[in-house]
Design brief:
With about 500 residues, the chain is an alpha+beta fold. It contains 14 helices and 27 strands. It has an 11-stranded mixed sheet, with helices on both faces. A 5-stranded mixed sheet has the order 18-15-19-20-21, with helices on both faces. It starts with 16 loop residues before the first helix and ends with a strand. It binds one RNA strand of 78 nucleotides through helix 1, strand 11, strand 14, helix 10 and helix 11.
RNA sequence: CGGGGUGUAGCGCAGUCCGGUUAGCGCACUGGUUUUGGGAACCAGGUGUCGGAGGUUCGAAUCCUCUCACCCCGACCA
């Protein structure tokens, strides 16, 4: 029997997935808990990933004609009350501001004072406050479509939080658009979902399933909610982005009206769509392994870690000069249209330690360069998509010349791995017994990683959806757009069904 | 918010049941020496309101009460 190789992360995914996830976040220095309940501190390496997500998405939004703006953090309670379903959906998780100042209590402490006449809600999402502005901005059909996005933080007072996946405060973008017709608004909703799917697959290397949410899973106040769903390595689904068609619900509650060509007033049609720092959670759980984070090169804060290996100061200087020659060469290279970012790790740690540090942080390429490599005009390269010990020697100029192809190859490799994983754990199920078996862990006390995506027929009733949720804690992730229309029988009640939907346990 | 668990140095933990020198160990950290191609070795050193508040006691990390935070399972949740 082969000796088990030591892994950088303990426990491993199969030993304790939840703990493994937390270890990745800690060891890769992405984020940590703060003293504020449920709120995280995003550390530089994690924040740099978010900045890259922002950069790419921002460009994609702008390419669709969307412009950025910024709206207040606070929402008057009365705004919130205008849309009944909306308030129902968020009421239980709102932070409320009721006072405006702190006063000396005479005992070295502070007490709150200055009670506000109307409480403010710290935004859990901004439909209502943005709607208030939109009602002023939209007067004529000539003002439409209005395509606005804001990058912001929002607060949802979650009772159970997990770093990146669900935190009380999180960073996100929320797009809000206004249209003259239903068709146009619906098309916009779908267009932005496509943008998210493209971003998830091409940049995060996370394959996703696009589809519509069932009624029960819809955004409060929306007419239709579309999502992209990704499979994590514990075979659970993670909703990575949503796009909502809001119909005229919010236009009516916020009085967003315009005059059409016939001089008649009409309520506009609105959409909203968002992705958050949760994408970083998706990134972690889709790709990382038992040695740490694995970052797709297109979203990594840096691409290459160069680790000089020197026996003495004299060698060190020579090696650094050699490295400089390589980094000079890299300056002219582009990957995904952007500069290639190099981290030279000239710290005191030993070479092994440094190498492992960058493995854990998910750096796509490591170059270990000692005197031997220098004399041979070569570099010793390790790739994060391969085993840590699987390294090879390349001529330095060949490396520089092909670095973009190598990064591209890593990106594709990571994506393909995720696709295969999803395929291997996706099944079509046509009878109830198999369905229940698929989602039942063998060890109930300590459930092992099990299940996956089950494509099964569903009659469309809330009752069946609820029953399955009750019995198995499995929900309909979405009703995929891209699935062959075929008739079948509901996995739950046996009634006629028009198409298959994705069932899975989820985050 | 319900059930269970855990809080002791930056990280991981022992000590708590059964109160008793100066609160310990490994890793990390600082200085030094030797090292350096795969997570270095040795020597020396620093580090703690024992999560917090109150109580019991001659004496509390340890017992009691309250409280806060985190983790797991639920409930809830774009």
């Amino acid at each position: 029997m082969a000796k088990k190789q030591r892994t950088a992360i303990e426990p491993t995914r199969s030993e304790d997935y939840a703990e493994w996830y937390q270890q990745i976040v800690r060891v890769a220095e992405l984020a940590e808990n703060s003293d504020v309940r449920g709120c995280m501190v995003i550390k530089p390496w994690g924040y740099a990933i978010w900045e890259n997500i922002q950069k790419v998405l921002d460009k994609m939004f702008k390419a669709e004609g969307v412009k950025n703006a910024y709206f207040p953090l606070f929402i008057p309670k009365s705004y919130f009350e205008k849309e009944a379903e909306h308030v129902d959906g968020f009421a239980k998780e709102c932070a409320v501001v009721t006072h405006s100042r702190l006063e000396d209590d005479g005992q070295g402490g502070l007490q709150v004072g200055g009670q506000l006449t109307e409480p403010y809600i710290v935004r859990p999402t901004s439909e209502t406050i943005i709607g208030a502005s939109f009602s002023k901005w939209v007067n004529s059909y000539r003002d439409l479509p209005l395509l606005i996005n804001q990058w912001a933080n929002v607060v949802r007072w979650e009772l159970r939080t997990r770093l990146f996946l669900r935190t009380a405060e999180f960073l996100w973008q929320e797009g809000h658009t206004v249209h003259a017709s239903r068709d146009e608004a619906e098309a916009e909703t779908r267009l932005m979902l496509d943008v998210y799917a493209k971003f998830a697959e091409e940049y995060l290397a996370v394959p996703v399933i696009k589809g519509e949410k069932s009624e029960g899973e819809r955004f409060p106040g929306a007419v239709a909610t579309y999502s992209i769903e990704a499979m994590m390595q514990d075979k659970k689904a993670l909703q990575a982005g949503t796009s909502h068609f809001l119909g005229q619900n919010f236009a009516k509650s916020s009085e967003i009206k315009y005059q059409n060509k016939d001089s008649e007033y009409e309520y506009a049609w609105t959409t909203s769509w968002g992705v958050s720092t949760r994408l970083i959670g998706a990134l972690i759980m889709a790709h990382s392994d038992d040695n740490g984070l694995v970052l797709p090169p297109k979203i990594a804060p840096a691409h290459i870690a160069i680790i000089p290996i020197a026996k003495n100061e004299e060698d060190r200087q020579e090696i650094l000069a050699y490295i400089e020659k390589i980094t000079e060469g890299l300056k002219d290279k582009r990957f995904d249209g952007k500069e290639i970012i190099v981290e030279i790790d000239d710290s005191d740690a030993t070479s092994g330690e440094k190498s492992w540090k960058w493995i854990k942080k998910g750096m796509p390429i490591r170059l270990e360069i000692g005197k031997r490599d220098m004399e041979a005009n070569s570099v010793f390269m390790g790739r994060r998509d391969l085993d840590p010990r699987d390294k090879k020697t390349l001529r330095w100029d060949e490396f520089v010349a092909s670095v973009d192809e190598i990064l591209e190859d890593i990106q594709n490799n990571i994506f393909n791995k995720a696709v295969s994983f999803r395929e291997e754990n996706s099944v079509q199920i046509d009878n109830q017994e198999d369905f229940y078996k698929f989602f039942t862990p063998e060890n109930k006390k300590k459930p092992e990683i099990h299940g996956g995506f089950a494509f099964a027929h569903w009659c469309g009733s809330v009752e069946c959806e609820e029953k399955i949720k009750e019995d198995l804690k499995v929900t309909i992730r979405n009703i995929p757009f891209e699935v062959n229309a075929e008739e079948g029988k509901c996995i739950c009640c046996g009634k006629t069904s028009k198409q298959r939907v994705v069932f899975s346990k989820s985050y």
